């Protein structure tokens, strides 16, 4: 609320805030001439809100800041119902305006990503220590569910490299995939089920923001590390090594590789692998150079598979020690409801693994969804996406699929191939279905080496060195986090890398909330602007006044620090002032513009500060407290302690008060 | 760095920042007249810091913000050594100037707190399910160590109610104090040892700020709940109930009380207990009414003990069913080094219990230390205090003590009795020693009921209903946290209450970092000040411009929210503008003064925002980015995207740019 004080209205002209014209020398602000006429604004007290209003507005801002039900307002019940259904199944919305021209785009895109996903699926299922058909199953059911429930138009659904690797290495700890085959498989479905439950629950409870707690830097590091680990794992297939370590760290892998260099490598395999790897990388390069040729890298994998399979078949290279896929089960996904553990000790294990993999899957899918939504300029509701992804994995877990999510590389291809709606996923799914029904036997002679090459060329893109360089440039601490996660994955294991990424992210948040910045403000000569003296070295100290800005809410987590830090600024300034023989400090102005909120601990800290200053004979002044802050200062009666006359709208007003005071007491 | 642009120096007079005199009507800021002569300040680019400087300054601010070694700078090695020793043992500092007049104060204070602590110690050890002598032991050794190492002048060291209760209920879960007496005792010493290790480690690693993560509100609730629980536990002694529940929740306790109402209560016990409880409360009331009589409540407990013991002895009331202490072991603390578990399964349990109790002990001690330090205006180094408290508990665990810390009630008495230095703790410790050596047999006939009354009257002060009322007034969410912790302790258990307190505190931090406030700014008519339109309803929108202030650093945890929220402000404003038939929005100003920092996620969010706005034909302008922010914007080349000409020192400058632009394109 603005108070105009008639008594003062005639005075204080330039005082209309941070205001005073001056082409004069900088010392003008220290001149004591009583300032001429104008309005004086005082700090506004916001209208008092009731408890219910306050509560609901906090809840809304935290969980429903995007007002997901905005459109439903002021509608009839049947319309609301229809809209609600449409919110859950966006297909009911875009489906009505779907046209043939859109289908053309989706068909091309769907065929392209299908040709990309089939060899990848077979390879990724190996990362999860599952038989190849499970990868294909996971590219059939989940995309269909997503097409009905998802709201991203560009995402391509299916198994992805990092989640497969993570799932595999977490499952392997609980059950051996060689010895306890059945148990391992059941645990995989259980984990998938709980991954879906976790995802759907996060979305439904609108806790989607939790995935934002993994920092960008940590994700870049983790993904890069996982990509390197995955590529290293492929050395087994690419070099044709028979006895390979079960560890994923670089040291063990390299030992396996060197250890088998004399007798374990198979030159035919190596020749096939590297020829096709070169071909794939070349295709990738061509696609990158000219966006028009995006289809070259997209169809390169399936071409390689066909050529390599033909080659092996014609020359019977499998007799020469070239390992082949040998068998993929024919037929559509069998039910797996009975395989999910709903009781027993495996439930907790499955839940833990599922929750971790589910969160990582979400992080990846939501990041992809957001990227492409921003490119095509449509809004994406993260929480709704999570419900869609969760449902898709729950259904998946009952139809022999393991965790599916959005794939970076395939989504990019989908986008470039001109997809228009999630129908491209349906097309892909149909192709996968046909593959399962008809042509799986043809994969018998496909060499494992070619799958390894395809995976290596696919995951290379996850090593985002450009992002790492940018992080290095922007924030060194972030870079440390990024490298920590990267080396954690590469030298230890995926779980350790993930743990490092999460810990560093949390540590950063903790530091952020306990150690907010405080800066010393000075006057820019010739103006009434006050700015950080470090950033603006020309900013001048006001004699007898210390001005400190607190750049954060003052909460229990930082209130002691803030109080101590302000006092330290004061002590430092007192030292400087006495060393330079300047007048002693008699005012401390705390600029509170950035202090968005304060709690009881913060109020105690301010009170302690006030008392401490009183003892030293220094007056505490506040400048521009925000609405939440002024309200709380008032209800705790702190404004009365400090004095309402000592709270100002701007730093300039406060400084003017100080200088006029010090003039009065010579 | 301030740039003065000669070309513009002749122009833009009022433009000298948020500056323009006006006694004219508010619309002045929308006039397009080119502003007259003056200096133009540009956003300052701070001098580039090297990686090492940046790294060390972050480390220093996080861990050494109080520059603990400041005095040691520029000193000879021997002086440094001496100063280092003195840092560790402050007694070497104040000891040199210790005088007789100081000792007088300390003697009186020491005797007073000794008379208070002896009956309390005996009672508190019962809360921890330990024999009474262990309470006395813990008031002998730890205060001596603290006197040499601690830096608070007012804290009174010894066992305290809440930690005793917490320790007892955590230990009881691992070993039964009745059946496995020896194991229980050993585990108690192990927990004490690890509590000390935890405390010392936190202090030594300068991680003391971690205890700030328990919010004030949560502590108030937890303490209040613990006090109620402790008082309820005393009903056993006060009513003379023989079969009492082992649970601590109010429901079980009340069942025990009602269940034994007919045959279990002992009227002689009840009479003694309530007579003395009335006496103690009256003494407390007198002390509160007139600070001069602070000694009345201080000596009331020991007086009660003497009178009640005499009464029981003379009338042989113990034959009437009045329970008595019966036996306290005579003699000084025996060694207990051999009782601490250093190997085996109890180490982990002891560590867990010790860490929790140690943290709570620290919270209490540091809060007390800070309170009294602020009253007497001296500085307290929290981390140094932790090292002192930790060492004291480590030594304590080896000399048959259980966890000691600072006591709220005794420290207050110590302060009021005029203590000057930690010597008052030494005096108290000496009195306790004499008690152990000489008069423990005299406690034989002390009725348990009187100890119960003393504890009830002591813990009543922990129910800080005034603080709870203030919390209710200041912050409703905080109040919910406070009540959650309170009811958690009272209705469930101390651990559950503590868990609730910690969870709520963390949830608050999470919400704080994920949902920062953003506000819409408007112009205060007649000035060039821009303020929150909600707080200042008179603030006016600038036609065609939306001004949003972001009140937080933009980090990975909130970058998506910030971007979406800014866009929502824009959409809302667009709706309003089109409804009112006003000119369309063509500029979005983001006021960044409160944005202290930004990371790569934040930069991506700004970039996305910029691209999104470009598509809508809206220009993004930034106002007053801080030094860290402008540096990062520049190194990520985002300043080039947005255009250096679109980054301003003040909102007023940015708005002036917008209005002159819209004038050019009619």
UniProtKB/TrEMBL annotation, chains A, B:
The chain crosses the membrane at residues 155-172, 184-205, 217-235, 265-286, 293-315, 386-405, 426-443, 449-472, 479-507. CDD domains: STAS_SulP_like_sulfate_transporter. The keyword Transmembrane applies. Residues 8-32 have a biased composition (Low complexity). It is found in: Membrane. Residues 1-34 are annotated as: Disordered. The keyword Transmembrane applies. Residues 535-658 form the STAS domain. One of its GO terms (molecular function) is transmembrane transporter activity. Keywords: Membrane, Transmembrane, Transmembrane helix, Transport. It comes from the Eukaryota. One of its GO terms (biological process) is transmembrane transport. One of its GO terms (cellular component) is plasma membrane. The gene is sfp2. It is a multi-pass membrane protein. This is Sulfate transporter 1.2.
């Amino acid at each position: 609320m603005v108070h105009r004080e008639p008594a003062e209205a005639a005075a204080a002209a330039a005082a209309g805030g941070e205001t005073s014209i001056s082409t004069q020398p900088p010392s003008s602000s220290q001149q004591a001439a009583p300032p001429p006429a104008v309005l004086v604004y005082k700090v506004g007290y916001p209208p008092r809100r009731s408890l219910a209003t306050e509560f609901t507005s906090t809840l809304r801002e935290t969980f429903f800041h995007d007002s997901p039900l905005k459109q439903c307002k002021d509608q009839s019940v049947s319309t609301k119902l229809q809209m609600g259904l449409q919110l859950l199944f966006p297909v009911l919305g875009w489906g009505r305006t779907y046209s043939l021209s859109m289908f053309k785009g989706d068909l091309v895109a769907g065929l392209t990503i299908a040709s990309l996903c089939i060899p990848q699926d077979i390879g990724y299922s190996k990362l999860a220590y599952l038989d190849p058909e499970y990868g294909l199953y996971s590219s059939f059911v989940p995309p269909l569910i997503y097409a009905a429930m998802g709201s991203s138009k560009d995402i391509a659904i299916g198994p992805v490299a990092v989640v497969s690797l993570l799932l595999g290495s977490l499952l392997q700890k609980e059950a051996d995939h060689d010895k306890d085959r059945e148990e391992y498989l059941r645990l995989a479905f259980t984990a998938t089920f709980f991954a879906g439950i976790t995802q759907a629950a996060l979305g439904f409870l609108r806790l989607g923001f939790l995935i934002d707690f993994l920092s960008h830097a940590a994700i870049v590091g983790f993904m890069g590390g996982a990509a390197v680990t995955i590529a290293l794992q492929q050395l087994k297939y690419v070099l044709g090594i028979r006895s390979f370590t079960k560890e994923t760290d670089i040291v063990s892998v390299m030992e396996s590789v060197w250890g088998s260099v004399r007798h374990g490598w198979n030159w035919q395999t190596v020749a096939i692998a590297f020829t096709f790897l070169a071909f794939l990388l070349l295709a990738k390069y061509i696609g990158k150079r000219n966006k028009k040729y995006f289809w070259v890298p997209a169809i390169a994998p399936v071409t390689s598979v066909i050529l390599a399979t033909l080659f092996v078949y014609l020359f019977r290279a499998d007799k020469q020690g070239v390992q082949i896929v040998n068998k993929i089960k024919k037929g559509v996904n069998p039910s797996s409801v009975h395989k999910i553990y709903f009781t027993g000790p495996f439930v907790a294990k499955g839940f833990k693994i599922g929750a971790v993999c589910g969160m990582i899957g979400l992080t990846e899918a939501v990041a992809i969804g957001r990227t492409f939504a921003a490119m095509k300029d449509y809004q994406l509701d993260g929480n709704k996406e999570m419900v869609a992804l969760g449902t898709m994995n729950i259904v998946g877990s009952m139809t022999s699929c393991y965790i599916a999510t959005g794939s970076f590389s395939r989504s990019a291809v989908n986008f470039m191939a001109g997809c228009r709606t999630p129908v491209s996923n349906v097309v892909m799914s149909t192709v996968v279905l046909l593959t399962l029904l008809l042509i799986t036997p043809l994969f018998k002679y496909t060499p494992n080496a070619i799958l390894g090459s395809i995976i290596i060329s696919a995951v290379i893109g996850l090593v985002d060195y450009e992002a790492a360089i940018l992080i290095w440039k922007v924030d060194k601490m972030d870079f440390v986090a990024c490298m920590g996660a990267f080396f954690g994955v590469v030298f230890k294991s995926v779980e350790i890398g993930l743990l490092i990424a999460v810990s560093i992210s949390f540590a950063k948040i903790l530091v952020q909330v306990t150690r907010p910045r405080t800066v010393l403000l000075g006057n820019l000569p010739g103006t009434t602007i006050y700015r950080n003296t470090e950033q603006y070295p020309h900013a001048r100290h006001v004699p007898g006044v210390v001005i400190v800005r607190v750049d954060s809410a003052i909460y229990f987590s930082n209130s002691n620090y803030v109080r101590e830090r302000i006092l330290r600024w004061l002590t430092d300034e007192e030292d400087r002032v006495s060393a330079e023989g300047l007048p002693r400090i008699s005012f401390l102005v705390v600029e509170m513009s950035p202090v968005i909120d304060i709690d009881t601990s913060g109020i105690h800290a301010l009170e302690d500060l006030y008392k401490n200053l009183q003892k030293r004979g220094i007056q505490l002044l506040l400048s521009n407290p925000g609405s939440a802050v002024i309200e709380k200062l008032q209800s705790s009666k702190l404004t009365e302690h400090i004095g309402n006359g000592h709270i100002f709208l701007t730093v300039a007003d406060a400084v003017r008060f100080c200088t006029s005071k010090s003039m009065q007491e010579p």
